[in-house]
Amino acid sequence: MMAKPHEIAHKFATLAPNTELLDKLWHKYPSEYIRTRLRAIRLLWQGNSRQDVIETLDIGHSTIMRWMRLLVEHGVDAGLRRLATPKKAPKAGKLSYAQQAALIEIIEQKNPSDYGFEQHIFTGAILVKIVEQEWGMTVSDQTIYNILQRNRFSYQRGHRDYEPADLDEQHVYGERLKKSSKHPKRAKNVSSLTNSGSRIDQPSSTAGHA
Predict the structure, then answer these.
(1) DSSP E strands: which ranges in the chain?
(2) Number of other CB atoms surrounding residue 201 within 10 Å
(3) Torsion angle of the four alpha carbons 178, 179, 180, 184, in this order, in degrees rounded to the nearest 10
(4) Residue 26 sits in which domain range?
(5) How far is the C-alpha of 127 from the C-alpha of 149, rounded, in Å?
(6) Are 200 and 121 in contact (CB under 8 A)?
(7) Are residues 57 and 99 in the same domain?
(8) pTM (2 d.p.)
(9) Which range has the worst mean pLDDT, 76-80, 100-104, 119-123, 180-184?
């Protein structure tokens, strides 16, 4: 189980800073996005609160939690080096059947807070970021919604007061999706969306197709 934000913060506070390595990485990598990451860690080590760092660097809460989690999970030295690793451009593409099944599993068994987000429900934007984080792939939020609708996750149009989802039914269809990864042609037999209500927010665009 992935650590919660307050657990990450507590563990981060117990780490021994390595400012010497941070300085070396700072001089080695002049890219602004890398230095912003390192600057955030430096400010935290200097005793600044997370909120102060967020406001100073104009970053999101989930962003700083992801950076802190790298040091907590991999250790200070390895975590700093990961923060300083240049970005690889994510590839655009479609999720495989196995990846779609894994995404459904995340929605059924995880919460946004497990991935450093403050929201209590998964939104298209959050799932897009999780896809990029997990598989290094960019997809549109509409692609996410198409996948969810095909697998009996739905949302009510016009407002955000959602009915409880039928978790047992969703789990059954998640299992069918996993099986379909071995037999892709059978995926077309999955019934269209019938139940209403889920933990998914409404789509913000109509671009993209699954």
Answers:
(1) 91-92, 137-138
(2) 19
(3) 110
(4) 5-83
(5) 14
(6) yes
(7) no
(8) 0.47
(9) 180-184
